[in-house]
Amino acid sequence: MDKPFLHESDFTSDDGQPEVVRRESTRLSREQLCTLISAASINLGSMMCYSILGPFFPNEAEKKNVSNTVIGMIFGCFALFDLLSCLLFGKYLVHIGAKFMFVAGMFVSGGATILFGMLDQAPDGPVFITLCFLVRVVDAISFAAAITASFSILAKAFPNNVATVMLDGSMNGSLEIFSGLGLVLGPPLGGFLYQTFGYEVPFIFLGCLVLLMVPLNMCILPNYESAPSEHSFWKLITLPKVGFISFVIISLSGCFGFLDPTLSLFILNKFNLSSGYVGLVFLGLALSYSISSPLFGLLSDKIPYLRKWLLVFGNIITAVCYMLLGPIPILHIESQLWLIILVLVVNGISAGMSIIPTFPEILSCAYENGFEEGLSTLGLVSGLLGAMWSLGAFIGPTLGGFLYEKIGFEWAAAIQGLWTLITGLVMGLFYVLEHWRGKRRDLQNTLITEEEREERTSLLPHEI
Hints:
- By secondary structure, this protein is an all-alpha fold.
- It is 79% helix and 0% strand.
- It has 18 helices and no strands.
- The chain is globular and about 90 Å long.
- It is found in: Cytoplasmic vesicle, Secretory vesicle, Synaptic vesicle membrane.
């Protein structure tokens, strides 16, 4: 039977995306489905393990004679070593093997989470602090390995067109549901288990849950191979657009990290809530983020031009949220629990606006500047994204814990908001200049084309 004739309109949609690719991308193969399950498992498990500490660990550490500054450093050291590890694993992803890196990272992360639950048996003071740092460092390295491999495998699993999976943001946004779900379940579950069973049980429960996912991923996760890339992180991050987006990622991550060592202590001291209820307060941020992320991913999929402005306005709204979180004393607004919850909900939505476009914006910029399409480039971009996020997650709690101790939560949160405001405005200015340069370049090309046409016309023999 003859194939039906396809018009040009059958191949392309209104936004220029091949229609055949779109139809194929809606039908997932078994390999793609297994990859999504694996990526979802690491997003869910890692975020639960990361967020479980917030409601009760700062208070528990204070009982062990640990200052707020050191508590912030314990949270921050995770991000520092995650930063270094992401750069390393992103560079050598192809040499190590994506599947091995993913599974090994997940296994070590589960074991480190269980070990962290045993630290309440350690003596107070320096011994407890040292062990906290050691276990968090191991957990950070394993987390970086799993997440870096996860991003790269996910994008590689859709060979027809990477854009339909990661560049358009819809699949990335959908997977952020599981990251958000981990952030949603972690604090209230951790607070409940801590309040009911004590310090050890939350970590043992989640650590065992992550370990149970290891054999599942060993069986279902596809194995990909690729040639090493000739490009480097330095070449990628020195691209102006990538550099500015990196600063945006750092500022957003710093905001999230700031809340870990400070918000629970502020709420406990201000409103005298139990650890279980503090976990529910964190729920507002995580739940709104997990719900809004796929919506913004879908929006950036349908209207790619909006990505840049979602990123800019998301940062500005985040800045306003942190000004009101205290609130900043110059506003003369009394701190209320309902206001904190409302601000956290709005912050979760604005974070979804800003975070979702970062990966596709960096990846498209890399391709436009000569980076080859393949697992190596995906590893570089994934490693860079993880590294910048980790740098912010190190600066946020470390600086936040120090500022909280010196000037109080209200001013510390305002300074954090000022950081995101500056990066948002700078990013907006860059996009405006980029748009203006593009218009100017198009005008110059049009003038050159008209001049060439006139020269050709003048060279033609005139009719007699």
